Automatic annotation (TrEMBL):
Belongs to the FtsQ/DivIB family. FtsQ subfamily. It holds the Pfam family FtsQ_DivIB_C. The chain crosses the membrane at residues 20-40. Signal peptide: none annotated. Part of a complex composed of FtsB, FtsL and FtsQ. The gene is ftsQ. This is Cell division protein FtsQ. The keyword Metal-binding does not apply. Keywords: Cell cycle, Cell division, Cell inner membrane, Cell membrane, Membrane, Transmembrane, Transmembrane helix. HAMAP family: FtsQ_subfam.
Length: 254
């Protein structure tokens, strides 16, 4: 075979190689375009609220203070999205922004439902007049609702809610087992404790040894009750003894 024949054969092979390469590239481009178009179409369908709407929201959990209408308003905009495009984290945040909701968990349930589990705040005390304390001693703001039980009134520095609640529970337990009921407890800016019982008696407990001072009051109260006078304030800020302020007269018992 001459060199010219060999050169011609090489050119033919190169042309065939180029043709296969071009065909392969065109085929790959078609596949990529097709996949992109399919992905675009799928994305459009998944985000189409008319094609895949959220048909229902199932709310579970005990609710005493959060109405269905409040939940509907909170989720109104989010419900305009499709089942797949709805962000469950945003739904959770919208629900937890409701004043009486403590915690919310949200998950999708095929084919068109969101399942929500709500945990409400459990108020255990009024805090500084217009707020509440929950069972963990956390402060929260919420409107007054029907069905809230008669709760004690606690006051103190903003960051001391948990401390005040703990002290209230300790003192309240001691008083309750001795026939008294603690109506309110206050911690001043100087960290002095002031208490009021349901019978109207006010107790000045000072900064320390509040449990010991409450026990002293319980021990001496039968003697105070035997008097033909109404007890107003009992000052227990003494190492021993106490001072009594009667409603109709003032005297001291030491």
């Amino acid at each position: 075979m001459s060199w010219s024949d060999k050169g011609q054969r090489i050119r033919v092979l190169l042309l065939k190689t180029d043709w296969y390469l071009c065909f392969g590239l065109v085929f790959l481009a078609c596949v990529l375009i097709g996949l992109s178009a399919a992905a675009f179409k799928l994305n459009a369908v998944l985000n189409d609220a008319d094609a895949l709407p959220i048909e229902a929201v199932a709310i579970n959990g005990e609710r005493n203070y959060t109405a269905d209408q409040e939940i509907q308003v909170a989720l109104q905009d989010l419900m305009q999205r499709s089942f797949f495009s709805a962000d469950v984290n945003q739904v959770q945040q919208a629900l937890e922004a409701l004043p009486w909701v403590y915690q919310a968990s949200v998950r999708r349930e095929w084919p068109a439902k969101l399942k929500v589990y709500l945990i409400e705040q459990v108020p255990v005390a009024h805090w500084n007049g217009d707020a509440w304390l929950n069972t963990y001693g956390e402060v929260f703001d919420a409107p007054v609702k029907e069905g809230i039980p008669n709760l004690p009134s606690l006051t103190g520095p903003e960051a001391q809610g948990k401390s005040v609640l703990t002290t209230y529970q300790q003192l309240g337990e001691l008083l309750t087992i001795n026939g008294f009921s603690l109506k309110s407890l206050s911690l001043s800016a100087r960290h002095a404790w002031h208490a009021e019982l349901n019978n109207g008696i006010r107790l000045e407990l000072g900064r320390e040894d509040s449990m010991t001072r409450i026990q002293r009051f319980i021990h001496v109260y039968p003697k105070l009750a035997a008097q033909d006078k109404k007890v107003g304030v009992v000052d227990l800020r003494y190492d021993t003894g106490l001072a009594v302020d009667w409603d109709d007269a003032q005297t001291e018992s030491r």
